[in-house]
Design brief:
about 260 residues; alpha/beta; Rossmann fold; seven-stranded parallel β-sheet; 7 helices
Length: about 260
Amino acid sequence: MERFASKVAIVTGGASGIGAATVARLASEGAKVMVADMQEPAGANNAARFLKTDVTSPDAVKALVDGTLAAWGSLDILVNNAGTGSLGYTADMEPEEWDRVFAVNTRAVYLGCREAIPHMQENGGAIVNTASISGLLGDYAMTAYNASKGAVVNYTRALALECAQHGIRVNAVCPGLVETPMASMAIADPVDREFWFSTIPLGRAARPEDIAAAIAFLASDDAGYITGVNLAVDGGITAHTGQPNFPVRQRLRAERAGRES
């Protein structure tokens, strides 16, 4: 199935993780893809080209869009995927760290949209932003990350309203835990890994390909009547109130009582 035959896409942060999986998925369905990253992709892809890009720089993002148009003559899909993490309490955080996180996670999304939209207005297109379930709910010691991704969530909604008149759809994916280099430290220890997985109803982390599949759907004509949506791709985490699993607790109490009798 070639849903993206004759389509041209840009994927920021496309050299690894979710970005690399998205490049592969779009290319496998017929798209020509410009990979924007600071690091060159490890694998070759005949349908993809690489342009070293600092996504926080207006000049670099303009050069990215201009380079894509020079290569293929059009731009149909923008995937704002580049991102960075941050861990720390607000009282201990330097302003430079806050600004760094917002530059990559939020400012870069705005810059990409600002440059791409004028070239999509005539024929329409699709923008997909990589937000996070951390933009929907709060986490411990992740205030900068939460705030930056929350901004992407609401920017996606507002931009969808702004772009609808031009036939440009704007959506976001909100991943939970994904097996990427950025998340590797969180689940490297077996004890930590078991704890993380116990919070996910589907019982595992997402693969980058899981998120890429959702991005491809939102970018495709199959989602032609969907805009302004922040799609949680999280194995069911955000379906949970946070209250304990009472049947399991009851079973454990009964088992403990049986051992003690």
